Amino acid sequence: QVQVVESGGGLVQVGGSLRLSCAASGRTFSGYAMGWFRQAPGKEREFVAAISWSGGATYYADSVKGRFTISRDNAKNTVYLQMNSLKPEDTAVYYCAGSSVTYATRNMGGYDYWGQGTQVTVSS
Fold first, then answer.
1. Distance (Å, rounded) from C-alpha 41 to C-alpha 52?
2. Which of 108, 111, 89 is nearest to 34 (CA)?
3. Partners of 19 in the beta sheet?
4. How many other β-carbons are positioned within 10 Å of the β-carbon of residue 75?
5. Number of H-type helices and E-type strands within the chain
């Protein structure tokens, strides 16, 4: 049973920073790509960032490029999302997802394992 568990969400002021963590278990973590998605109230879930199995390739949504950084520590079976210069429009539930392939993808259909989500609220 593959499990993906997010942590690190919370309430932050505009311009602040948060670091989300995602711990994966139940399979060889280092062999697969990982991604972050988010869903704001009344909106569809959307892609935020993705990282390949080795960490050598990363992709970002245009809305977060230059502010968010995805990284991974395969020794700790953990992927991170560093979020800086947060804006009110970043408010959402953030989901970590595990893929069954090695390459990073923006496509939600490319991910088989999902966490429960962690709430990020940016207040103005």
1. 29
2. 111
3. 82
4. 8
5. 0, 11
DSSP letters along 82-113, please? EE-S--GGG-EEEEEEEESSSS--S-GGGEEE
pLDDT band at 96 (very low <50, low <70, confident <90, very high): very high
What's the pLDDT tens digit per position in 71-95? 999 999 999 999 999 999 999 999 9
Pair type for strands 34-39 and 10-13: unpaired
Start-to-end C-alpha separation, the chain: 40
- The burial of 38, by beta-carbon neighbours within 10 Å (0-12 exposed, 13-18 middle, 19 or more buried), is given as buried
Q: 20 by DSSP, 3-state: which?
A: strand
**Tokens 């960490």 found at:** 55
Cβ atoms within 10 Å of 62's Cβ, excluding its own: 6
